[in-house]
Design brief:
By secondary structure, this protein is mostly helical. It contains 3 helices and no strands. It has one domain. The termini are far apart. The mean pLDDT is 91.
């Protein structure tokens, strides 16, 4: 069970890291705005940190 949780946590962190890398190095301004808007739509409590 501990192994499964470790694998799932690693998958979630890996996916988040990949999306952040794409956001920083491969997305232009309009794509970054689209990604920010999607995050703040689905996770509104993050808006105070993302849209500073």
């Amino acid at each position: 069970m501990k192994f499964l949780l470790t694998v799932l946590l690693g998958a979630v962190l890996g996916a988040a890291g990949t999306l952040y890398y794409i956001y920083l190095y491969h997305a232009d301004g309009s794509e970054q705005a689209l990604m920010r808007n999607a995050l703040t739509t689905y996770l509104p409590f993050l808006s105070e940190y993302i849209n500073k």
